[in-house]
C-alpha cells in the first residue's frame, strides 16, 4: 500500500529509557491507514514509513 499524506504535529517523547520520539496522527489519517491493512500486524500496529521534517528525511 502506498499512501502519501502531509500533516503537522508536535513531537513528543515516551517517558522511558531511550530517545524515542512520536507524532500523533490526525484521527482521519489514522482511519485511512488502518482500514486497508489486513493480516498479521507488527508490534503496536506499527508500519514502515518515510518521513520528512524540514529538510531532513528518513
Key features of this structure:
1 helix, two-stranded antiparallel ribbon, alpha+beta, 4 strands, about 60 residues
Provide the fold topology.
Elements: E1 11-13, E2 21-23, H1 27-34, E3 52-53, E4 56-57
Antiparallel strand pairs: 1-2, 3-4
Instruction: Say how many strands there are.
Output: 4
Unreliable stretches, pLDDT < 50, 5 or more residues?
none
Radius of gyration: 13 Å
User: Percentage of helical residues?
Assistant: 10-25%
Could you explain how this protein is built, in words?
This protein is of the alpha+beta class. Helices cover 14% and strands 17% of the residues. It has 1 helix and 4 strands, in the order ββαββ. It has one helix at residues 27-34, and strands spanning 11-13, 21-23, 52-53, 56-57. The strands form 2 sheets. It has a two-stranded antiparallel ribbon with strand order 1-2. Strands 3-4 form a two-stranded antiparallel ribbon. The longest helix has 8 residues, at 27-34. The chain starts with 10 loop residues before the first strand and ends with a strand. The model has no long low-confidence stretch (mean pLDDT 79).
Describe the structure in brief:
With 58 residues, the chain is of the alpha+beta class. 14% of the residues lie in helices and 17% in strands. The protein has a two-stranded antiparallel ribbon. Strands 3-4 form a two-stranded antiparallel sheet.
Amino acid at each position: 500500500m502506498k499512501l502519501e499524506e502531509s500533516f503537522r504535529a508536535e513531537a513528543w517523547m515516551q517517558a522511558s529509557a531511550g530517545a524515542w520520539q512520536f507524532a500523533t496522527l490526525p484521527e482521519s489519517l489514522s482511519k485511512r491507514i488502518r482500514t486497508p491493512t489486513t493480516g498479521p500486524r507488527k508490534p503496536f500496529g506499527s508500519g514502515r514509513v518515510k518521513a520528512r521534517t524540514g529538510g531532513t528525511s528518513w
